[in-house]
Amino acid sequence: MDGLQCRCTRLGPLMSLSSLFCIPFISLSLQENPIFQPNKEINFSQASPRIVSPAFSCCKFSFLQLRAGQKLRPHFAVSAAAGAFGSVEDKLPADLHVVETQEPNSRVKLSVEVPPAVCEDCYRRVIREISKHAKVPGFRPGKSIPESILVGFAGKQYVQKATVESILKRTLPHALSSVTGKALEDSIHIATNFQDMEKTYISLNSLRYDVLVDVAPDIKWVPENAYKNCKVVLELASDADAQRIAEQELKFRHKALGPLQIVADRGLQVGDVAVLDISAMTIEQDESNSKRIPAAESRGFNFDTEVDNVLPGFLDSIIGIKCGETKSFPVVFPESWKQEDLRGVHVQFTVHCKELFYRNLPELNDSIAEKLVPGCTTIEEVKQALWERCHEVAQEAKEQATDSAILAQLQQMVEVDIPQSLFEEQGRQLYGAQLLEKQAHTKLNEQQLAALSSPKAVNDFLQSQKANITNIIKQNLAIGDIFSRENLQYSVEELEKEVKNSISVLKQNKQDYDEERVKEQVREVLEGAKVLEWLRVNAEIQYITR
C-alpha cells in the first residue's frame, strides 16, 4: 500500500460564473463548412423563422439552469470530520506533536508524532474490540480471555495493523485541528507509506506520519481593492448594423415561405440553393507535395448562394455550374479567416454539383405579413417588429458583453495560489459538461464514450485547458470575496422565487433534485448576480460604437 487515501463526502462539483452568465451569440445556423466565415454580429438562427432570445440574462434571473451537484464557488470544510475518522471530542491520553509546513499550491504538510501513551491506549482498544467479537475455543462468551491468547487467536500481524489504523483514526482529527475551517473537501492524503508506519510502531511503540491537505487559498488583490477601480471599454454595433440585421432576418423569413423547385435548364445563379460535393488540395510549386485539406471538404453540402459570409472567390467561381458538372478553381483563404490553420493557404477546390434548386417566392406584400411575424397585418408592422426585437437582442448582448468584460478584468486583478484538488475538480466539471453536451448533440456509442471518459482524455483536457480553468477559478473566488467584502445581500423573496423557478425547470426536464441543494445553488447564483450588479454600477464602463 503506497499510501492511505482519505476519501470524504463531497459538497458537490463547481460551476463557473462564465457558464452561468455567458449568453451565447445567436449564430447563423448554416451546415458547418470552412468555406463559410462565422458572422461576428448578432445574427438569427435558421432553425425557425423567428428571433430567439437568450435563455436568461445575467441580470434578469427569471430562470436558472441548475443540475444536482453543481456549485458556483468552492465551499471549504474540514474533510476529516466526515465520519471516516474519529473526532476531536475523543480525548487523547497525551498530546500530539504536529509540525505545520506551508507548501506550494495552498497545500499544508502536517508532520505528526504520536507518543507511546496514545499508541498504547489505541492498542488496548483494539484488544477490547477483539475480545468482544472473538469466539475462542475453550472460552465461554463473556469470560475474560488472556491477552496473549487473544493476540495468538487473531494473529499478531492483524493486531498490529488494526492498532496502526486505530491510531490514525483517533489522531487525524486532532492533527488537522490547525486547518479547521480551511481544509478543502476530499483533499486529505496521508503521504507516509503504511508499511513504514507499521514498522515504526513495532520497533518504537510510537508512530510518525505526514499528512498533506489543500486549504482555502488566500486572495490577493493587485493593487489592494482593485475591483473598486474596474475600467472596461466595449465596442458595440451601431443602429445601422441592427437595421441591416433586421433586414437580413426579413429576407430569411421571406425565403422560408418559398418552396424549393428543381432547376433543369440553366446553371447556378444568385438566389439558388445547390447540393455540392467539395474537395480541396493545397497548391504547391511541386504538385507532388500537395495535400488534401479535410477541414475544407464536404459531401452533400447544401449551399445557399445568398449568404454573405462565404469564402471570398468561392461563389464567383461556381456561378453558372449546372447539375452534374464539376468545376476546379484556386482560392486563397484570407488572413482574417477565423480558422487559423487555413489563413493564407492557397487551395485548389474541386466542386461537383449534385442538385440545383431555386425558390418560388411569394410577393413580399401585406398578404403574407401574418406568416412572417404572427400578429402583424402589414409589411411595415413586420419590419417594425423585427427592428424592435433586434434592438432587444442587441441590448441583451450589450449586457452580456459588459459582464464578460468585467469578469475578465477580475481575473487579472487577483493573485491566488490555486490548490491542485480545486483545479482538478473545476477541470473535471468543465470536461463533464462538455461531454454531456457532446452526447446530447451526437449519439456516442459505448466505445466512444469510454474513450472520452478515460483518465487520459480527462488529463489531456486538464493540461490543454489549464489557463482557462485557472482563470475560471480566479474569477469564482474573486466574486465570492467581493460579495463578502461589500456586505451584499439578496431578499428572501428573490431566493424563494428563483428556487421555485429552478424546481419547475427540473420537473419539466424530469430530473431528480434535492430542494435544499437547489436552494443552496440558487443562493450562490444570486450572490454572483449581486456582485455583477454592484460592479456594473461602480465600474467605469465606456461604450464605443463601431
TrEMBL record:
Domain Trigger factor C-terminal: 378-535
Gene Ontology molecular-function annotations: peptidyl-prolyl cis-trans isomerase activity; protein folding chaperone; ribosome binding
EC number: 5.2.1.8
The keyword Acyltransferase is assigned to this record: no
Signal peptide: 1-29
Coiled-coil region list: 485-516
Domain (Trigger factor ribosome-binding bacterial): residue spans on this chain: 99-234
InterPro entries per record: PPIase_dom_sf, Trig_fac, Trigger_fac_C, Trigger_fac_C_sf, Trigger_fac_ribosome-bd_bac, Trigger_fac_ribosome-bd_sf, Trigger_fact/SurA_dom_sf
Annotated family: Belongs to the FKBP-type PPIase family. Tig subfamily.
Protein name: peptidylprolyl isomerase
